[in-house]
């Protein structure tokens, strides 16, 4: 079972990140997600944030400065989560 997914430094763009967000809606095993240094825009960051709103499994989330909105949204929604 996949519990850690490191997608940092992969030049992931908006389309791929939107698909990832769709998958996160159904995630029940992934606990750590690294999306540092990718090409994720504001609209896609909001899409990921919406997916993480319903995801209670992710406990560690690594993001680049461009995705700061998503990082703080997730922490605000799930106060017990720990950023990395």
UniProtKB/TrEMBL annotation:
Keywords: Membrane, Transmembrane, Transmembrane helix. Coiled coil: none annotated. It holds the Pfam family LRR_6. The keyword Transmembrane helix applies. The keyword Endoplasmic reticulum does not apply. The chain crosses the membrane at residues 52-72. It comes from the Eukaryota. InterPro entries: Leu-rich_rpt, LRR-containing, LRR_dom_sf. This is Uncharacterized protein.
